[in-house]
């Protein structure tokens, strides 16, 4: 049974089977919080495993580099005709360590894949709960509105008429408050005669 089904069954009135929408919403909010915490815990586990894998990768690369260096030393010793048993022993030890690191990496990959799958499932579950909560809130709101209309039909009608009048008034104000006209106005060009006349007038007006 889904979480919503469990919530509805737990809140159902045993006598008439009715449900309190507010209680349903409260229970779904709790379920969402719990699912979110679970998802966050899985995300932390994934981050930790990724960090461990990165550390193991670095160790494996360093070991591979050292193994290559030791192998080259063995080859040089053999080419010189000397005993390379001690060096070969070190190479064998490094190869054993390389196998151990490879096994560790394989285990980390499996664990990381497991927790990533669980995180994806938890994320889907969380979003499903959020959608169910949104639907429950909508249902509760509709029921409250319908109950208010049944209790106070006249008042509700007046409120609806007032709301409609407010909407129309707002639309009218928006229509009146139009964007300024950005079209350039025709300008009257100035002439030298106008400039001379104005300046001569100013000059003649001086004391």
From TrEMBL:
In residue numbers, the region (Disordered) covers 169-188
Q: Which residues form a coiled coil?
A: 32-66
* Source species, domain of life: Bacteria
Q: Tell me which species this is from.
A: Zobellella denitrificans
Please list the residue ranges that the record marks as compositionally biased, kind Basic and acidic residues.
169-184
Keywords assigned by UniProt, alphabetized: Coiled coil
According to UniProt, the name of this protein is Uncharacterized protein
């Amino acid at each position: 049974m889904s979480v919503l089904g469990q919530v509805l069954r737990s809140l159902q009135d045993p006598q008439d089977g009715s449900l309190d929408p507010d209680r349903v919403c409260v229970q779904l909010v709790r379920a969402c919080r719990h699912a979110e915490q679970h998802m966050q815990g899985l995300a932390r586990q994934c981050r930790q495993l990724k960090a461990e894998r990165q550390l193991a990768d670095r160790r494996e690369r360093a070991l591979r580099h050292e193994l290559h260096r030791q192998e080259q030393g063995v080859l040089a010793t053999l080419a010189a005709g000397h005993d390379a048993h001690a060096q070969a022993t070190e190479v064998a030890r490094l190869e054993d360590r390389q196998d151990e690191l490879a096994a560790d990496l394989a285990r980390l990959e499996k664990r990381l894949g497991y927790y990533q799958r669980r995180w994806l499932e938890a994320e889907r579950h969380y979003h499903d709960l959020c959608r169910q909560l949104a639907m429950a809130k909508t249902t509760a709101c509709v029921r409250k509105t319908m109950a208010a209309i049944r209790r106070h039909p006249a008042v509700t009608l007046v409120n609806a008429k007032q709301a409609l009048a407010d909407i129309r008034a707002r639309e009218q104000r928006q229509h009146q408050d139009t964007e300024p006209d950005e079209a350039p106005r025709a300008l009257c060009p100035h002439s030298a005669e106008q400039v001379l006349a104005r300046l001569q007038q100013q000059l003649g007006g001086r004391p």
